[in-house]
Amino acid sequence: MLLVVVENAPPRLRGRLAVWLLEVRGGVYVGDYQSRTREMIWEQVKDGIEMGNAVIAWSTSNDAGFDFDTCGENRRRPVDFDGLRLVAFHPSESS
Hints:
Number of helices: 2
Helix content: 25-40%
CATH class: Alpha Beta
Order of helices and strands: EHEEHEEEE
Shape: globular
């Protein structure tokens, strides 16, 4: 299983994602691909996200059962905590 969520993404990126994945809600895309296709999709997201942000999550054989990555301007960042991926919430720039 593969999940991609985008915010403030340009229309051409959203259209490109719709070629490979099913948009079940605005900016929420799901599909089921192997790692090579997933990496190709994620490269397209990183190249086309511009001022938006995105997160990708996929099924894998680790303790959590999934892994994820982010790109773009976002206050939530993945961190490694003894082999477990968690999310760190950073304060806004204005704080």
